[in-house]
Specification:
Shape: globular
Number of strands: 9
Low-confidence stretches: 8-18, 20-26, 258-266
Oligomer: single chain
Distance between the termini: 88 Å
Order of helices and strands: HHEEEEEEHEEHEH
Largest sheet: 9 strands, mixed
Length: about 270
């Protein structure tokens, strides 16, 4: 009986040793995948502190923005700075193109910027508080050097078409739409502090009345327009597509430093 018990103990020890050996010499346990590489830090704004007036901001930005964009302008046959400016903003692609021209002649693409934030969805702005970014063609009005979001460029919403098709009283259509810095948006286009500096400067040096922005649901040069909620919206998209045909994208356009989120300033 003792011999049988000893044999059973030896067998158990052998089995246990075999299992331990397999665990020791078998494939190592799977390890978690390596963490993705950290995103590069966004470039800092050129203006750590914004001067108090538009003229002071333009003076402070003159040389660095010239170094950034003048070579592309010269290569495209434009004098520096461009006298006429159009911005093309595409909601779906979160992209804004900067185009410039001499006082006469065609427009040329100078740069492309990411839109870091834009609230709402496809479709025009209809009323105060809907958080929509407008769609259409708008004048770029006054330049705001005292923006809570670094710098601001006023978008003159509503235009005549918005007013014609309004669904609320004119006083309730909303407004106060801007291109600005930072990376937050409530109905505006947030371009990051570094991006808005370039746009502010180029817009500020354009001739009076010669700066516009076209805001489209998507890049209608490349993809079909979405179906509008009302017939007039489809007609507007057709006009935007026709206008965009005047702006042929250029692969040689400069790509300035990628703007990144900056902390809110108030």
């Amino acid at each position: 009986m003792g011999g049988r018990r000893l044999a059973l103990v030896l067998i158990a020890v052998a089995v246990l040793g075999f299992g331990l050996g397999r665990r020791r010499h078998g494939p190592p346990p799977s390890s978690p995948p390596p963490a993705p590489a950290a995103e590069p830090a966004p470039p800092p704004p050129l203006l750590a502190q914004v001067p108090g007036s538009e003229a002071e901001v333009l003076r402070a930005l003159s040389e660095p923005i010239k170094a950034e964009l003048e070579p592309t302008a010269r290569q495209a046959g434009l004098r520096w700075p461009p006298r006429r400016v159009w911005l093309l903003a595409f909601k779906a692609e979160r992209r804004l193109e900067l185009w410039g021209a001499n006082r006469a002649g065609p427009f040329r693409q100078l740069a492309t910027y990411p839109i870091l934030a834009a609230s709402g969805t496809v479709g025009p702005k209809r009323r105060y508080g809907d958080n929509q970014v407008p769609e259409g063609i708008y004048r770029l009005g006054w330049l705001n050097p005292r923006s809570s979001y670094h710098l601001g460029i006023y978008v003159a919403y509503p235009n005549d078409e918005d007013v014609q098709h309004r669904v609320v009283e004119r006083s309730r259509m909303g407004g106060d739409i801007y291109l600005h810095g930072n990376a937050v948006s409530i109905g505006c286009l947030a371009m990051g502090d570094r991006g808005i500096e370039s746009l502010f400067y180029v817009a500020g040096r354009a001739d009076a009345g010669e700066r516009r922005i076209l805001i489209a649901p998507c890049d209608l040069r490349r993809v079909p327009a979405p179906r509008g909620a009302e017939p007039w919206i489809d007609a507007m998209y057709g006009r935007l597509r026709a206008k965009l045909a005047e702006f042929s994208p250029s692969p040689a356009a400069a790509t300035p430093p990628t703007p990144g989120p900056e902390p809110a300033t108030g």
